[in-house]
Amino acid sequence: MNLTLTISGACCDLALHPVNAETAARVCMLGDNLYKTNSIEWWRANSNNTCGMRLTADARIEAALDGASVAFDISRMSASAALLTQRPFLESPEKSLCLLGYDDEACSRTWTWRNVTDYDMSRFEFFVQRWDAILGVADYLVIDDVCYDGRPADEAVWGESEGFTFRTPLIVPASAARELAAAPRRAA
Questions:
Q1: What angle is formed at CA 98 by the lines to CA 79 and CA 28, rounded to 5 degrees?
Q2: 51: closest CA among 122, 105, 118, 123?
Q3: Which tens digits make up the pLDDT trace of 21-56?
Q4: In the chain, where does DSSP find H-type helix?
Q5: What is the pTM of this model?
Q6: What residues contact residue 50 under an 8 Å CB cut-off, 6+ apart?
Q7: CA 175, 138, 59, 50: dihedral to nearest 10 degrees?
Q8: Do 183 and 83 form a contact (C-beta atoms < 8 A)?
Q9: Distance CA 13, CA 47 (A)
Q10: Cα 48 from Cα 85, distance rounded (Å)
Q11: Euclidean distance between CA atoms 73 and 66, whole angstroms
């Protein structure tokens, strides 16, 4: 049997980059115009970006086994939330981070596992990133990936993309992210 999990809603692609005081001042001066410069190469130049589906009240989440809907407990996703997986800023001596990207692309993502013998919703494992301390928004969660019964999906497909708007670049204290990294992970 094939098991699918589909999330429809808002996709985001966010990145944090350590910046010195001079670069932070330049980011603040340029604001949204930063995206028109070659500095945009920052955003995707390394593994500092996160692309995932936002877990919002209006996100539509559906699980199906061979096309027939099955029970699914959405609350387990938020219980899995952990710190951002972006780690390069932790070793950086810089005191500030620059946040770039977007978080409003209307789209969907479907994970498919083939040859599933039986369904048990407790076998899902969610990789959910917590961005609330960085963005100052309560429960700002991004679903990065999903496993079922200890294995990654055989296929993960993005769909229904309808464009996005870049966020105004934001300078945040690196200490906030470092404190999050030191905090214990919430139990799933």
A1: 135
A2: 105
A3: 998 999 899 998 888 887 666 666 656 677 899 999
A4: 21-30, 41-44, 75-79, 88-91, 132-135, 174-182
A5: 0.85
A6: 12, 13, 14, 15, 84, 85, 86, 129, 142, 144
A7: 0
A8: yes
A9: 12
A10: 9
A11: 19
